[in-house]
Specification:
Elements: H1 2-15, E1 18-19, H2 20-27, H3 32-42, E2 44-46, E3 54-57, E4 68-71, E5 74-77, H4 82-92, H5 99-106, H6 111-119, E6 124-128, E7 131-135, H7 139-151, H8 159-163, H9 169-180, H10 184-198, H11 202-210, H12 214-226
Length: 250
Amino acid sequence: MAFASEVLHSLLRRHQMATLHELKHALGTNSTMTVFRKLKALGYRTSYSHRGKYYTLAEIPRFDEQGLWSYRGVGFSRHGNLLDTAQYFVEQADSGLTASELEALLHVEAKEPLLHLYRQQRIERRQIGGVYVYLSRQAARQRQQRLPREARPVSGEIEESLLTAAPLPELKAAILLFYSLLDERQRRLYAGLEAHKLGHGGDRKLAEFLGLDLHTVARGRRELLAGPIDGRRIRRPGGGRKPAEKKSPP
């Protein structure tokens, strides 16, 4: 059985991480319990991203100052799984965290994990400035977090107040009305601006909210970040109906 542990150790050192299926294949077993017994003996960590699909040795990650390590787009955390990591970041944040702020830190969808923690009463949630902010449940710490958050000027970001299951109807109606008054290019650029403000996952959220193609939102964001924009042009060069050729009189 010591040989089996050596097989897993060698595999994970060589590839840095592996899925449960890959670990089973390396051991020549279909038993999940066998794999986890060997992993436990070696010391392991589970990814917080990709639904905990990946495993690595505890000795492999080189965590940054926030306790995070990423390898080939897969995230591992010194603080544990996604729920434990999300709770840690909320507790440590000077002014709490919104879902988009946590997504920018972890590069994974954060709304559902935060709601899950809130329903489990592991963190608190308050609507501040029209945006849901997640805070510590400890009264003293929560008070410390709320004061700087409430002192911030309203930034105009649409964040969760626009896109969550409990939005502000008046705000959504006003934004949709404003959006309907824009021309084609202005709509694209506006969507790109708001997507950029939301950070990770912003393109998808704006596309769903405004009924746009995902690529249109991404294009608007790229145009904004690329530099100066021609204020006279609506469509990109070559876009629109082709002009009819002038015919010479017979």
